[in-house]
Structures are given as C-alpha cells and as structure tokens.
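Something for you to look into today, if you have time. What I am after is a single protein written out in full by you. I want to see for myself how the chain folds. Could you add the entry underneath, on a fresh line?
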Amino acid sequence: MKEAVIEIRNLSAKYGEKVVLHDISTDFNKGEIRVILGTSGCGKTTLLKHTIGLNKPFGGSVKIFGTRIGELDEPDTTAVLKRIGVMYQNGALLGSLTVAQNVALPLKMHSKLNDKIIEEIVRQKLKDVRMSHAYNLFPGELSGGMRKRAAIARALVLDPPILFCDEPSAGLDPVTSAGLDALLIEMRDRLGITIVVVTHEIESIKTIADSIIYLEKGFVCFDGSLKDGLALTEGKVYDFFNRIDREENK
C-alpha cells in the first residue's frame, strides 16, 4: 500500500485577483519520483511553491508528514521544512562561497556539528553526486550541469526524505540532462527518498517519472502513473507528449 508523505487537499492559489490554482487535491507517495508537468504558465511552479511553504494557500491545505503547512508557529514550520530539500532551477549557489561552503551551509545553520564532521559529510555528499573534484571551486568555475549537481548535494546534506527539483534539466544539453536524470533515479533507489520534479522536458519525464500530475491553466487534467499517461490516445496529456498544439492546428 502506498504511503502519502505529502497530502494536498482542495488547494487554491491567487496572485492578486487572478486565480492560478483551482481546487487541487493530490498525494505524493513515499519513494516515488513524482513529476508536475504542463505547458508554460499552467501553474507548475506555483504548486511547488505552495507545497514547500513559500506561498500561503488562498484555500485548501498542504500537509507534509501529516503536519499542515502554513498554519504553524515558525519553529514548528522550520522543523517540518528541514525534512525537505530543494534544488532551485538555477542552482541558487552563492557565488562568493566555494562549492564545499555552499553545501555545508544548511549544516552550519541547522545543526550543532563540529567543523570536522561537517567537512566529512560535505565530502561524502559531493562524492555521491560525482563532484569531489569541485570541493574548493567556486560556482563561477562550474558548468551548468556541475552547478545542478552541487545544488543537489546541498539539498540532500541534511538527509531529507523529500527532494524537490525545479526544472533540473533547464538549459542543459541532452547528454548532461540524461546524466542528471540518472543521478535522480540513483538517489531515489539508494536513499529511498521521494523526489518531486517540476519540468516540461518530455524525454526527462519519460525517463524518471513514476507518476505525473498534469496541470492546464491551474486545473488538474491528469493524475496517475506515467504508464497510464502515455497510454492515453487523446486529450491534453496526449497532446503534450506528442507535441501537438491544438490551437495552431485549428
């Protein structure tokens, strides 16, 4: 039986007077790679931001490990959110810090470990993402793919059971993107973590996704396994995977 680590119920979101998410209910299950997809402007990133507590819902709720996000005192919210890691689209590494210092930052902020233990953990996390050689490098010295790997190492340095990735393949060439996809699958299999990915990259989705939720103008059009999504023969999800623009073809 599947175990939901994130439960979203009747979630609505607004920017000003514009409603961008409409009554969304879905679960994210333990140990799966769950992909949020859809065309540009469909609400993917908005759903991500509400799920990790960056934005407060206009209506409905988000629960992580059974704890409702957005209605907690700050210390409690921090305790729950420390159990998730986030890899932002551009990596969000601090340019004035080395790769090692970037990866160590969550440990410095949220643990009482001494410097020697932190160094050991950072070296191991960089090894896990094939980035041991970049320990003393600065973000400006890294390629796009290397920055993404370093960002994953930082996101996982506190050993969170959930990892969120916002457009991990954006701006990468196909070979580098495929390598990053393989790394995410490896992390899921080896660590048993839940990975939530926001992306519109079709080949990446086909490679990594166990299940998908497809958004269209803030509504859920499909929520189920990748296999079932690919088996559809019509509709928005079929159009997406087959690169069909119905508006152009009218």
Remarks:
- DSSP finds ten helices and ten strands in the chain.
- The first strand starts at residue 4 and ends at 15.
- Residues 174-191 form the longest helix (18 residues).
